[in-house]
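Please review the protein record below. Tell me whether the encoded fold seems credible here:
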Amino acid sequence: MNKRKILVTSALPYANGSIHLGHLVEYIQTDIWVRFQKMRGHTVYYVCADDTHGTPIMLRAEKEQISPEALIARVHAEHLRDFTGFHVQFDNYYSTHSEETRHFSEEIYGKLKVAGLIAVRGIEQLFDPVKNMFLPDRFVKGECPKCGAKDQYGDSCEVCGAAYTPTELKNPYSAVSGATPVTQSSEHYFFSLSDPRCAEFLRQWTSEANHLQPEAANKMREWLGEDGDNNLSDWDISRDAPYFGFAIPDAPNKYFYVWLDAPIGYMGSFKNLCAREQIEFNAFWQRGSTTELYHFIGKDILYFHALFWPAMLEHSGYRTPTKIFAHGFLTVNGEKMSKSRGTFITAESYLDQGLNPEWLRYYYAAKLSSTLEDIDLNLEDFVARVNSDLIGKFINIASRCAGFISKRFDGRLVSGELYQQLCQTVNERFPGWRPDLIEKAFEEREFAAAVRQIMKCADEANEMIHALAPWEMAKQPERGDELHHACSLGIQLFYLLSRYLKPILPGTAKQIEAFLNCESLTWPTLQSDQPVSDLLLPAGHSITTYHHLMTRIDTKQIDALVIANTQSLTAVHPTPAPIRHAGKQQHAVMPIAETINIEDFGKIDLRVARIVNAEHVEGAEKLLKLTLDIGSEQRNVFAGIKSAYDPEQLKGRLTVMVANLAPRQMKFGCSEGMVLAAGGGHPGELFILSPDSGAQPGMRIK
């Protein structure tokens, strides 16, 4: 087998929040693939870093009254702690706020400038009049100009994947202050992605050499357009002060946009590793390199990695990625992760509850494929699958057989003629245990297919052990050789399964290595003419005393995990203080109304409603006319929220209405219910209530 040299990266987590189970889909997937390649004897380096620049970091540090450097150092330690807790083993976990990343950012920018691919021009930019700052695209929200989805960021839509500029958003608002932004001019620096050289290169790169998955390549063709077309827009790579990041050389008060230096952080992290481990950096990054470079990313950042990044590398003289592996998102119980339901689960809370991180690694592996499809963490299925597969099938093999080997045969497996019989049994009964299919599935990131094949083998092993019934043999002293053979067979099969599962269960694998008294579980490889028995432990091999390797999941642990994350809404994330606009006082808190009993409350029928239309009412100073869909019918409601909402902002939103309120004939028409809103008493200070995502029109609120 030819030895490969491979550099692998995962997307850089932003240094402004905790690692959660959604993040871990990517890092566990990458770690499994890297461990598999290392087990096969290839030279593999896995690097990552915290993404540390940008306005969010600056604002959070300001809020906490610490320096941005202190904030990112603290978050770096927290992130590395969480990754380590889930056995994600980086060769280097670094920071983009480093001299290495600064060097490559300035160098690549300089080369692009020399190539004539940097343009400077004035732009109309959104400005927050309350915070007195230009708003980065991720600090402007509004409606997607392409599909109309609400509450989308100013750079790209999470619903349809479209990319755009903040000024293209409909009904924009500042995510910093809530104010409606105004437009001001500013001089910005652009990477000329629309240049014919970039378009021609990207059209070729995205369609050849399998750089992208088929779904991703199709998406790129959609963005690039047909031959002769050029749908690419120039990329704004600068931001105005105040900003936490790298200053652009010879450009006062201008900084590199975080998305320019974030992927360059891959290079910075690897350069740092190279200096520490005496690795040749250019061997992996120079143009024409025969080494392999793979990026594991979420599908939401495909645009940046499959268009901007390779174009930057190509036109600054570096090699481009061998392949980009994009994956889908995580849902929990079939829905988006939710803090209110306790399913927005942080990595720290999972570990703090005493849950085994390898339960989650296995469950993710059993779900993951090479496509961009989302995966679902169904908590009930999670318990059932882990308990059935890992405990009931895999661990069960060792627990059934190890005790007899230790007590009856001094911890030694069969040797001599009994060993030859064992090898013959394995070759005749378990030809499907050859590594070919499993190895292919791991290589192609079809982890679910690999797990299915491994568990099929585990089923076969358990069926044989059940048929042999060593516990019955142990009752008959004259059947000692049969008992020795049966239990040795079970341990040998467990040994093979452990080698296949090691990339997924590295912590358990270490315990198994101690139990089986073997230095390291290597990846099983066979030539076409070799029998499966060549993968076994040697004749007469000695094992140690068996200790429990893994426990079952108790459903109470999962219940406690959900409760812990639900409670964290108030314990860890207190309600923020209201934003103070100029001349506005904090809202007054109204006294609690007279106490009612449950029967009184039960008379109120609250329903989820979708606002299908909202319009001004001619002649009314305070009212908007809302058309509400409550599942079984549509109703008209006149709501006194005109001072707080533009009708266009409300269309498509979910809200809550009192459905059994008697119709009220008003001057402007009949109002057939009431929408619920909160208010502090000041003009315009009204906030209609919205149910969590997943609620459907007509659902009753209890």
